[in-house]
Amino acid sequence: MKVDGKHFRSIWRERDGWSVGAIDQRRLPHEFIVAKLTSCDDAAVAIRDMLVRGAPLIGATAAYGMALAMREDSSDPGLRRAYATLVVARPTAINLKWALDEMRATLAPIDPVERAEAAYARADEIVEQDVEINRGIAANGLTLIEAIVAKKKPGETVNVLTHCNAGWLATVDWGTATAPIYLAHERGIRIHVWVDETRPRNQGASLTAWELGHHGVPHTVIPDNTGGHLMQHGMVDLAIVGTDRVAANGDVCNKIGTYLKALAAHDNNVPFYVALPSPTIDFAVDDGIRDIPIEQRSGTEVTDMTGRTADGRLETVRIVPEGSPVANYAFDVTPARLVTGLITERGVLKPDRASLAAAFPERTAASAE
Ligand code: MRU
Predict the structure, then answer these.
(1) Which residue, of 12, 69, 156, 339, has the fewest CB within 10 Å?
(2) Looking at ligand 1, which residue's alpha carbon is closest to its atom 10?
(3) What is the pLDDT of residue 369?
(4) Could you tell me which residues are beta bridge partners of residue 343?
(5) Residue from 255, 272, 282, 328 whose mutation best tests the ligand 1 pocket (most atoms within 8 A of CB)
């Protein structure tokens, strides 16, 4: 998508052909800085410290991390070490393991001397595939927005609520939840996005607002607790969020607070959609609430906030009393019964076991092996 008229992706292979460039998302919205990843450890740290984040981008970074690892040591133990280092970088987004499994399936059977080149080629494919998948999500999600337009009075704006950042910054390009929004905007549909700030790391306020603003999509940042009020007053036509893992039964794991938005949407008859690329489905997990691991992050994300001061400096301040314990669960699970539909590259699906399995038979077969 565009940053002030110039097209950007969140991650790319640098001109030298081997190092990897990525936007440092910890510095947005205040500074646009590109980081250079030159080793498997760099990639693992970038994922762990959230220089890159968002399930599909975590997967893409891990794929390039494997390629960087193969330059360092392409032996069988080197391959095993790289996989083990990267797979534990963050626990909840299944795209990480999916990408590493794809890389390993390509690399394990071939001669170690060929592995580095093959790894870059496969990582590039994973990256391009992400963009293609998101184009599919855009087209399928657009039909939902167009159906709302058809019901509205001429000239009225479609209001979408989203949580966290499931935008192009969280993927390679387009985003998942934002893909239909960008396409609708491109088609001239009047669209406005309510952006949940998404405490504690504020991915909505810092990242979604930044990318929508730089692409020219009308939006308003709201405190996390505002969504229910807006829904009660008819100010939200539909909610679209992303996800880090969808269980085989259609339960959806996403950034903490998503579940509360789904409850409010249910109570107010607001359609609640989840946009996802198929690598986010985990057919090995039967019940999302019981079995998806929920990352717990540092308490400093809750106690501290960073922002720009009036004189232009970045400063971190404490907002919680010294000594008060805090809890920082990074994700929650929304039960399938609260989800109106899953927007995938193969259509808008019912959030249930049969629909997921029918749409992605090759994935169910693979997970049974
Ligand atoms: O902790 P984060 O910022 O990686 O969490 C991101 C989300 O929760 C996104 O909604 C999810 O990864 C989907 S991104 C297309």
Answers:
(1) 156
(2) 242
(3) 65
(4) 275, 348
(5) 255
Distance 114 CA to ligand 1 centre (A): 34
Q: Tell me how far the alpha carbon of residue 185 lies from the centroid of ligand 1, in angstroms.
A: 22
Q: Which domain, by its residues, includes 275?
A: 140-368
Residue 195 sits in the same domain as residue 315 = yes
DSSP states along 246-309: EETTS-EEEETTHHHHHHHHHHTT--EEEE--GGGEETT-S-HHHHSPPPB--THHHHEEEEE-
Residue type, 361: P
Q: Which two tokens stand for residue 162?
A: 């989203």
**From CA 182, how far away is CA 1, in angstroms rounded?**
9
- Same domain? For 180 and 105 the reply is no
* Domain at 41, CATH number: 1.20.120.420
Question: What are the tokens at 318?
Answer: 């404490």
What mean pLDDT do residues 90-99 have?
98
Q: Give distance in angstroms: CA of 24 to centre of ligand 1.
A: 15
Global pTM reads 0.97
Which are the contacts of 171, defined by CB distance < 8 A and separation ≥ 6? Answer: 10, 54, 56, 57, 60, 130, 131, 134, 277
pLDDT for 60 equals: 98
Q: Considering only CA atoms, which of 240, 229, 241 is closest in space to residue 267?
A: 229
Closest residue by Cα to atom 6, ligand 1, is 54
CATH number of the domain where residue 182 is located:
3.40.50.10470
Site residues for ligand 1, CB cut-off 6 Å: 53-56, 93, 164, 166, 170-171, 175-176, 203, 242-244, 254-255, 330
Is 8 in a helix, a strand, or coil? Answer: coil
